[in-house]
Amino acid sequence: MKKICLFLLGLFIFPVITIAQENIVEDDSLPFISTTGYFKTISAYDQDDNLVDTVTIEITKDQYDNEVTLPGEYGIMRGIGWSCTNGLFTCTYNTDYKSTTLSTNGRYINVKTTWKQIPKIKHLDTIGFVIASSDGPIAYNPSSFEVTQKYDGNTITYDENSGNRVRKGNGDGLVTNIVNTVSKSLEVELEVEIYNLPLSNTKINAAYEHAVTTTLTADQAKNFTYGDSTSDSGKTVLGGTFIYPNDVISKYDQTQGVQLIIDY
User: pTM for the whole thing?
Assistant: First the structure.
């Protein structure tokens, strides 16, 4: 019997969203299993286009498909724009929708983020995953790493030699700029081959963190480790995947991550 537990990850609290059970024939090919999270980000910018604050909330697929405005969002907008409305100017609000899907078939791990709306800021986003726990050691195919950025019918590919690849321990990912000219469609996808991913008691987390300000530097963006928790009070876990210094996290939208727990 194969048990798949699907979770959504916050910064520190990881509530159970769905538990599904299904039978999979044990042969030479394991079907891909996946989970998808849908997210809406509201950011406030002042008259000089400086970031004031940002809030990301989890939404349902129906709310994502229909771009539903939730009643509580007006309170969120007033809250994050407080410093604007009490000053001599008002905030400009930017709303983004995106979804992130984590998939694996035991040999490949795939993370894909699809933007429903093109983000205002196109600067040093981070996509990646971490094998947070497993019953055995993990071995990578070092040459299998690939990230593609598909935009407006065009494709940019990053391979294992990319200078912005960040691979540490059981985590792998990429820091990448969004193409400035994108106007219609945007998707970022990461895939890595794993030689011996244990398929019992294995927990995989993945996330896509969007930079909401251009003040983030490349060194800051790549200065993280992988994990779903930290005992360092000077650091914070983003999306259950990336551990960043506290002075950097406000420069990201702090989107929740997605999680697969595999046990069969």
Answer: 0.84
